[in-house]
Amino acid sequence: MNISTFATKDEMGRAAAECGAALIRHALARRGVASIIVATGASQFEMLAHLVKADGIAWNRVTIFHLDEYIGLPIAHPASFRHYLWTRFARHLPLPPEAFHFIDGEADPARECARLGELIRKRPIDVAFIGIGENGHLAFNDPPADFETEEPYIVVTLDEACRLQQLGEGWFPSLAAVPERAISMSVRQILNSAAIVCTVPDARKAEAVRLAVKGLVTNRLPASILQTHPAATLFLDQPAGSLLA
């Protein structure tokens, strides 16, 4: 796992976006098309803001997959990840992507997992843009995460630590308002990506980062599985990386 630490969130986000943009451009030059995964949450604010401004990307030849979404949350809800990706990313792209496969959290969950699974199996993923949760989760794969399933998308139950993070970041007015279930890309599907760009700011995630980098690989700290990926790069701000020294 490659690790880079930056003085500010903006520097972190800019570097992560530049890394990811270079990987997308390389895929476009090599195959003529590219496929990526994008995440949401406060950790991705700066990275996405810079990625949409990256030069030399023919977005009309890029297919985009959505990482996770709450079950039952309307798209108009401010915490909806579809809403987030539209307002912070999709509408700012200079060209419409070839396809943007949003997760419909209001659809039947099993059918939606099957639909998205069929789509993503057809496209090799060049870059996954992800983060790490305060509890060490990847996407909504909370501990103990399923490291074995080959299904690309799965239905998961969110643990209390995950739901408290969503509350603490200001997405919901109360813990009771945070949904208890979600559709998430599976751990194995994330690891199938040719490259992983993982952006993690804030001191509240420092312990999860330390364990992900220096701890044992275990489904009780799902992000530790990134140690096994040959092209995973971790972009941190100084508070997030403060326990690595």
Short description, anyone?
The protein is α/β, with parallel strands linked by helices. It has helices at residues 9-31, 45-51, 81-88, 109-120, 160-168, 187-191, 206-214; strands spanning 2-6, 34-38, 62-66, 68-70, 99-101, 127-130, 153-157, 181-185, 195-200, 232-237.
Write up what this structure looks like.
The protein has 245 residues and is of the alpha/beta class. It has one domain (2-237): Rossmann fold (3-Layer(aba) Sandwich). Helix content is 30%, strand content 19%. The chain contains 7 helices and 10 strands. The protein has helices at residues 9-31, 45-51, 81-88, 109-120, 160-168, 187-191, 206-214; strands at 2-6, 34-38, 62-66, 68-70, 99-101, 127-130, 153-157, 181-185, 195-200, 232-237. The strands form 2 sheets. The protein has a 7-stranded parallel sheet, with helices on both faces. β9, α7 (206-214) and β10 (232-237) form a beta-alpha-beta unit. The radius of gyration is 16 Å and the shape is globular. The chain starts with a strand and ends in an 8-residue tail after the last strand. The mean pLDDT is 97.
List keywords for this structure.
245 residues; alpha/beta; Rossmann fold; seven-stranded parallel β-sheet; three-stranded antiparallel β-sheet; 10 strands; globular
Tell me roughly what share of residues is in helical segments: 25-40%
Q: How much is the average pLDDT?
A: 97
Strand content: 15-25%
* Low-pLDDT segments: none
Which second-level CATH architecture applies? 3-Layer(aba) Sandwich
Widest sheet: strand ordering? 1-10-9-6-2-3-5
Tally of DSSP β-strands: 10
What is the straight-line distance between the termini? Answer: 16 Å
- Compute the number of structural domains: 1
Provide the gyration radius in Å: 16 Å
* Approximate shape: globular
CATH topology group: Rossmann fold
